[in-house]
Amino acid sequence: MFVADLTHFQDLPADAPGPARNLAAHLEAVVRAATAGQAGAPWASALPCGRRPGRRPCPGRIIVHRPEPPAAIGWRCGACGDGGVISNWEDTPYDLRRRHLAVAGVVHEVVIACQVAAVLRELALLDVDAERLVFSLRALPDGAALTVTAQELEDLTACVAAEANHEDNRRRRGRLDAAFTILNDALAAMGG
Ligand SMILES: [Zn+2]
C-alpha cells in the first residue's frame, strides 16, 4: 500500500523525472475524483488504472473512498489491486468539494464511452463546477456514467465547444468535436 502526502507532490521541479510527474498526476486525479463524488463510502470512478502489468494497460478503474469527516483518501484499482492512501489533500487545487449548495434540478444519467471521458479529463478550460462533473464520472462495465442536470450538461458542452475552437492540433480537435457531438446529442435528448 502506497502512502502519499499530496503536499510532497506539489510544485515538482520542471526537471523532475517522468515517473515522479506521472505519479503526481495520478494522485491529483484520485483526489479530484474522491472530492467530486460522494463521501463516506467507496465508489468506482471512471479513472483508469495507470499500471501496465506485462506491458499491457491494466483494464481496471480506480475505486476511491473519501471518509467523512475528512481524513486520508483511500484508492485501489478494481482489477490489479494497486492502491494507497493520500493525506493532506484538503484545500489543495485538486480538492473539488462543493463550497456552495448544488442548484436544484432534475438529474439525468448520461452514459459515455471511456475515450470521451478521457477527452473530458484533458480539458484545460474547465471551471471548478465542470471539473467536478468530469471527475465525478462513475465506472460502468463498458463506459462511464455522468450524473447531471440539463444546465450542468449545457455548461460542460459549452466548455468542450470553446476548447475545440481554440485547438490547433487537428487530431485533438477531432476528439473534442466527437465529444461535443455526444454531449450535445445527450442535451438535445433531455429537451435542453
Ligand atoms: Zn490496475
DSSP summary: helix tally: 5
Low-confidence stretches: none
What are the bound molecules? zinc ion
What is the helix fraction of residues, given as a range?
A: 25-40%
Structural class: alpha+beta
What does the largest sheet look like? 5 strands, mixed
- Radius of gyration from CA coordinates: 17 Å
First-last Cα distance: 45 Å
Any overview of this molecule?
The protein has helices at about 20-35, 115-120, 130-135, 150-165, 170-190, and strands at about 1-5, 45-50, 60-65, 75, 85, 105-110, 140, 145-150. It is an alpha+beta fold and about 190 residues long. It folds into two domains: about 1-85, no CATH class; about 105-190, no CATH class. A five-stranded mixed beta sheet has the order 1-5-4-3-2. Strands 6-8-7 form a three-stranded antiparallel beta sheet. The radius of gyration is 17 Å and the shape is globular. The structure holds zinc ion. Zinc ion (ZN) binds near residues 51, 58 and 80.
Question: What's the SSE blueprint?
Answer:
Blueprint: E1 2-5, H1 18-36, E2 43-48, E3 61-65, E4 73-77, E5 83-87, E6 107-112, H2 114-121, H3 128-135, E7 138-140, E8 143-149, H4 150-166, H5 170-189
The structure holds zinc ion (ZN).
Write a concise keyword list for the protein shown above.
single chain; 192 residues; 5 helices; 38% helix; 21% strand; binds zinc ion
Write a compact overview of the structure shown.
It contains five helices and eight strands; from the N terminus they run βαβββββααββαα. The protein is an alpha+beta fold.
